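hey so u asked for the seq, here:
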Amino acid sequence: MKTLPHGFSLIELITTVSISTILLSIGAPSLSDFNTRFRADSNIKVIQQTLMLARNHAISFNRKVTVCALSNNQCISNWQLGLTVFIDVNSNSQLDSNETTIFTTNAFNARDTVIYNRTLIRFQPDGLASGTNGTLKYCPSSPTSPYSRGIVVNQAGRARLSTDANIRCG
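ran it, structure tokens below
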């Protein structure tokens, strides 16, 4: 009875490892770009949906609703901390103990840049965002990323995706 050899020879193993290394070195940068683009698309949609939620809540409940990044219950301009939506009864740009938090997002990736030209976005009971219009920009991995996205908030309170192809966060 003749036994068959088991396993790979050294030459077969070296060839397999070499081909795998070449394929991995070609595919890894594409995977990184895919991850960056996916993170930007996903997070900009979260931001847009959060703004739409805040506006709808202001209209539905006839209250002033504020969206901002909070630190020690104060609105600050570090939007990377995430967004907090709350009813700002006294319009003092801080979350007081008698005010209701509607929604909070997670903080954004530490390597990403999130900027807005104001400290907060405030929706009036009629849905207007007067005085807080601008473009909220999300730039993954670097301020000049080709995958950067933006949300334009107009005076009427509408939040739409920016069509600008060259969004820069710096």
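The mean pLDDT is 90. The CA atoms of residues 73 and 96 lie 7 Å apart.
lmk if thats what u needed
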